[in-house]
Amino acid sequence: MAQSSPASSNLNRNSGGLFAQWRQRISERTLRSRAAEPGTVFLDLRRVYIVPTGAGWGYVGMLILLFIGAINYNLSLGFALTFLLIGVALIDMHMTYRNLAHLHLVPNRSHAIFAGETAQFELSIANQKNLDRYAIWIGFVDPQQDFPEQALDLAEHSSTSVTLSVPSQQRGWLAAPKVRLRTRFPLGLLVAWSYWQPSLQCLVYPAPEIDAPPLPQAARQIAKLDLHDGGELVTKHFEGGSSTQLHLDFAQLPAHLDIESKLARMTRWVLQAEQEGLRYAFSLGDVELGLGQGSAHQTACLRALALFDGQRVCS
Length: 315
Prior knowledge:
This protein is an alpha+beta fold.
């Protein structure tokens, strides 16, 4: 039985390694090349990259063997078959490239979440050409973690929305990672891909404290004797007719708690006050909010908690 020489084996391994390194370098270069892109992004030809897949390199090897065999045996049908398969490969290259190029990408919206929850980023993809697109895979890409991809088809002159997820770990602004679109349609001999950095971010509120103590005792203020009412004590009423005033003050929290623990407790108290239908004032650094209640008041408080940097609220 004939065996391949060590030199031949090393050559095969080295060539395969070179192709893998070349493709990896292209991916890394395109992954780092773009900052956040506001508004609609158009995938022109310069933004779409294409290389053979593993099956594609096997196809190239087969073509080389067919061509060599046709030369050695002077086979006209061998030449015809070889050039026919080369034509198939060229058509596949054109269709793979065309399947991804000239798409319009639009960042839509995201909703605020609490730390530890999954951020949802909604994106739109529009096909304004007179051709259908098939088997396009889209997903976030990051060197530090893997994200699932979604497959989609686009009819001519149509658009669709996709929602991509990212786990959150800490409060503050969470920017959408870079998006990769790729396709191997129709034959899988080549892969075309493009990167897009949408200008989209999600606000992450602090995770509320799980076993927080009850809301701080509301302060009831007692006025002096009212001589017009027979010398009886009277209670001073605050805005809205309430005789109690709930004030959530970051500066009054226990000193042994670190900043994140204090923010978690304030978050829990804001949610609890809203749940119980209480009016409350809010103090955090340079943010002072008077007595209020409802969705807008709660959002203002949670936003201040999310963006607090230790002394003031960031923009």
